[in-house]
Structures are given as C-alpha cells and as structure tokens.
Amino acid sequence: MKTPPPKKIQSSSLRLAQLNKSYDKFQAVSDVDLEVPAGSILALLGPSGCGKTTILRMIAGFQNVTSGRILVDGSDISRVEPNFRDIGMVFQNYALFPHMTVSRNVAFGLQMRGVARAEQAPLVQEMLEMVRLAHLAGRYPSQLSGGQQQRVALARALIIKPKLLLLDEPLGALDRHLREGLQLELRNLQRELGITTVLVTHDQEEALYLADHIAVMNKGRIEQLDTPLDLYDRPRTEFVARFLGVPNVFDAEILQAGAAGTTISLRGHTVTVADARQRPAGTCRISVRPTHIEVVGRDDPRPGMAARVRVARELGERTSYHLEAHGLAIEAHASRMRSVERHAEGTEVKLIFDPAHTIVLEG
After folding, report:
1. pLDDT for residue 114
2. What's the alpha-carbon Rg for the chain, to the nearest Å?
3. Of all helices (H) and strands (E), which one includes residue 128?
4. Which end of the chain is more exposed for a tag (fewer CB within 10 A), N or C?
5. HSE-up of 199 (CA within 13 Å, CB side)?
6. DSSP character at residue 82
7. Cα–Cα distances in Å, from 35 out to 27, 226, 353, 356?
8. Residue 194 near residue 3 (C-beta atoms within 8 A)
C-alpha cells in the first residue's frame, strides 16, 4: 500500500532582532539581526564557540536573551517558556528515552500536550511511515542504528506540528555515508512539510547542501548572510573565504576601480576583476578558489602569471597543482572534464585567474 504524502505544516516566519547574549563580561552573541522566510532553511555555520548553538538555544527558550527580540510570525516569544513556543528540536545526541519504544518516544510530545492515547496511535503511525520506521515501532533505541535513532528524534520533533524546527548538529555523530543519505532525506522531508527550519552545523558541505540561506558566524557576529551559491562564489571577508576552504588568499594592490571592474596588481601581474564597487587605490586582500585558476603552458597566447609546478597530484576527477609564483604559494585544480593538458612537477607554466571569481575582500 502506497504511503500517502505528508501533510504540510503551517509555515511560520522567524526574525531575530538585535539579539544579544552575554555572560558577565563575555559577549557570546552580538547584535544578530536576520530573517528566516516561512518554509525555508537557514543554516548557522561556523567554528566551535562562534555563538551558533547559543542562538539556537535562545530560539528554543533554553537560554535567556540578554537583549533583543525573537519574533515568530511577528509575535515576540523572547520571554515565553520553552514548552509554550511550539518549537521542535533535534539534538546531536538524539536525546531519546532509552526505556521507551520507538512509538512511545515519538508519541511523547502528544502525551505532554494531553492528546488521548487512542488519538495518538494514528498520528504516530503516520509519522513513522514518513521517516520509514513503521516496521521498528516496537523496538528500543539501543536496538537501532545511529541513522535510525536520528529519524526517530526527527519524527518526535515533527509530530507536534511545530511552528519551527531546530536542528543542532543533527548529523554530526554519523559516518560520512550515513550523513549524506540522511541529508537528502532531511531536505526532501523539509520541502514536503514546508516547515521553517534553523540548522546549526560546522560542516560547510552540509550547510551548502541543505540550506536556502547561510549565516557564517565569527565571534558571536554574523560575518556574512547569503545564499549558498553567493556565499561559495563570493565570500566577502577573509574569514569566510578561509572557513569555506579557499586556500588562495593574497595581498594585492588596487590600481583602479570603476564601473568596468577593479584592476588589481598581484606581484606585478595585472588582473581586472568583475567588481564594480568604488574602492580607493591601495593595498587589499583577494581570494580565488583553486578551481578558478587555469594552469596552461608557457606558450599559451593569453596573458597570465608565470609560475612553476612544485607538486602535481592526480585526485580522481581532478589534478591538484601546488605552484610557486613570484614568491606566492598557489593552489589550482584542473578538472579532467575540462582540461586534457597535464603539467609535470618542475614545469614552467602560466596561471590565468578567472576575473568573475577573483574576489576583492572586505575589511
């Protein structure tokens, strides 16, 4: 018998307005201001201690707000008790009750809301079918795999039809294979239900895959809030670029900036990048991903930066080059799908920087 499609949950919007959290003299969260449109996923991404989990716990009501507001559908819930916020939360350690079966774990939220046991059964069955665990309803958490436990925790959070779903490193305890499979399931389920979701993670790939918008956090502040594509292609600061895995961050000099682009000099090599912002001449920092640097032979007619291949490694779908150019250590990746030319270690080459993806960083 085919499982019916899941019923949509009423989507709610979320806004954090000048949110702050301090502990004595330590400022854990500073002036965080953002909006999460109804039905979308926001990822809070950053290293340990950046404030992302503190924000999640303030939204859930587990930690008090020092100042600022948390608004759901325009209503301020900053001082509302956690059990009255209609929020579902999934923790990294699952937090399942070991003495309860899968079905009783999932029914727990309904029980706390006074739903009659007879009315709980069909709701629990529907939710377990949704997460593909109906056949394990009578088992205990200790009899489940990590991935199955995580799906039970998700079902328990969703059965109350919350206004928001909060995910605190939900897949962090799983191995890579299981994590990738559950990412797909989680994203599909979120889209089918239409529930507004806030995800905390330190895994950039997970954030890029799951989220509609990503807030990269650093020392309690939002360093950049953007779509996954814009964040990946156009990091604004050196912190964001390096956190998202860009190894090539260099000092350069702005020669000219205008509507036609920004002309920069990198150790004497001139590149006009697609950056139309007005900037004063002088020193700057630039970033460029290895995939946006083309490695070509010295006889290529196009202008490029002279370099020497120090290390060349075949990595399946790409060749990874570590190069030296005018005292700079530069990394470039050549895709096998786009390039057939290979350059041996010690070879003199030229580097061609993609103007659209060579970024002049802020700050």
Report:
1. 87
2. 25
3. helix 117-130
4. N
5. 29
6. G
7. 22, 12, 36, 29
8. no
Amino acid 2: pLDDT: 46
Rounded Cα–Cα distance for residues 353 and 150 (Å) = 44
CA distances (Å), origin 339, targets 135, 310, 334, 343: 50, 19, 6, 11
Q: How far from each other are the two terminal CA atoms of the chain, in whole angstroms? A: 59
Q: Which helix (H) or strand (E) holds 71?
A: strand 67-72
Q: Which helix (H) or strand (E) holds 105?
A: helix 102-112
H or E element in which residue 324 lies: strand 318-325
Q: What's the token pair of residue 59? A: 């939204």
Whether 29 and 187 have beta carbons less than 8 Å apart is answered as: no
3-state DSSP assignment of residue 176: helix
Q: Which structure tokens are listed for 62? A: 């587990």
Q: 68: which residues sit within 8 A by CB, 6+ positions away? A: 16, 17, 18, 19, 20, 31, 32, 78
Tokens at residue 235, please?
Answer: 């990091």
The first and second tokens of residue 359, run together, are 């970024």
Say if residue 276's pLDDT is above 90: no
Q: At what angle do helices 146-158 and 117-130 cross, to 10 degrees?
A: 130
- Token pair listed for 258: 């205008």
**What is the number of residues in the chain?**
363
pLDDT tens digits along 134-184 = 999 999 999 998 888 888 999 999 999 999 999 998 877 677 777 777 888
Q: Where are the beta strands (DSSP E) in 259-345?
A: 261-266, 269-273, 282-288, 293-297, 305-315, 318-325, 328-335
**Looking at the DSSP assignment, which residues form a beta bridge with residue 85?**
none
Do the bridges between strand 261-266 and strand 269-273 make them parallel or antiparallel, or are there none, so unpaired? Answer: antiparallel
